[in-house]
Amino acid sequence: MARLPRLPRLPQRLPGPDDPLLDSMSRRRFLRASGVIGASALAAGAAGFGIGELLSTSTPASREEAKTRSKLVVVTLYGGNDGLNTVIPYADPAYYKARPELAYKPERVLPLDTALALNPMLPSLHRLWQSKRLAVVAGVGYARPDRSHFRSMDIWQTANPLRPVRTGWVGRWLDGTAAPVEAAVSFESVLPPLLVGETRSGACISVGGLTLPSGLTSGMIGALGQPQAGESALQARAAVSYADLVKMDTMVRDASSSSSSPTAEAEHLPGTATGGASSLGAQLALVARCVEAGVPTSVYSVSLGGFDTHAEERAGHEMLLRELDTALASFVDRMAASPAGQKVSVLVYSEFGRRVRANASDGTDHGTAGPVFVLGPQVAGGLYGEQPSLKDLDDGDLKWTTDFRDVLGSALATVLAAEPARYLDGYQPTLLPIFPAA
């Protein structure tokens, strides 16, 4: 398979109107100086797509079909979320013995049943649980777990724990169905392997903000986006992409202006900062807009980073969980208000959980199995799978009880109406009755 081109980072600052770069400069020279021509791989390649183009794929027919077609939103929590402090075994004395400083007292947690509870920073998800719109799949993992962030994330996104492969499980579905690029969309800063196939890939629309200097107006950007005689098709497409990036920036700011996000603060706390460049709420607001517009997209990918909590875990983890709680619940509530949104399911996972025992730095180290959340207006809420034992460990780690491919296969079979084994390298999953059918 030909490798996808590495996408250069787009500039975070545009030249101002008094900048000598703009003095007697054509639109073509401006694009070259600002780096947009260098981003032509994004503009012309399979992964390059603009929000304007995506919204333009909405037609009367697609809007009508969107009311009945199931859609999947995949939320990646980069860094390895501490599952034991997310879905808490609050009735188990072994939990308090293993992490006395990090454990949550029983009176603080949000009970799911007599054994498990949600972290107190997840009240909105607890509300969704009570209304049967949140499913918790316990003990999700794979055999011979790998504690490397990169290898474990590769395993999750390619759905192949046995050997490295170049394609993601959604990417293979794109190949198998000859789907158009808008069938799968990522609102992350780069295209995740999840959406890469052999012959096709999803679209990547970065929502990272631009900083426009005073005096540079949208009218100026609009002028730069106008066709110019004599330029190549690639340069014309790059210009449209550049203008589209500014439109995206406006949409992101509008989407996130109504609520504050702790993302900026979280960047200064311990933890891997891999993930979406803007708040999860802003990414999901763009997904909501596309769903409501009737865009013919079946799979969306968004992310939140910072979960590598090796030190001083409590403050940073709580901040991230608050953001996750607000963003997910707001999105599900918004989706419940429209026919197209009713068919949306959200899958939330991380590459691995954390070690059972806390470390000496008031944090936790890389572990293995962890919980997966599935939520949405028509999700069959409840507890699925078996919570791993805290007494029967594998070298200090939880033993997985649910194969992660059972969760992914269930999404393939129901949301995407596909044959799971075809896209899971022959693996026949045990289907979980969680997702609404297509």
From TrEMBL:
Chain residue ranges for the region called Disordered: 1-21, 253-272
Protein name (record): Uncharacterized protein (DUF1501 family)
Classification via InterPro entries: DUF1501 (IPR010869), TAT_signal (IPR006311)
Taxonomic superkingdom: Bacteria
Pfam families hit by this protein: DUF1501
Xref: PROSITE patterns: TAT
UniProt feature, compositional bias: Low complexity: 1-15
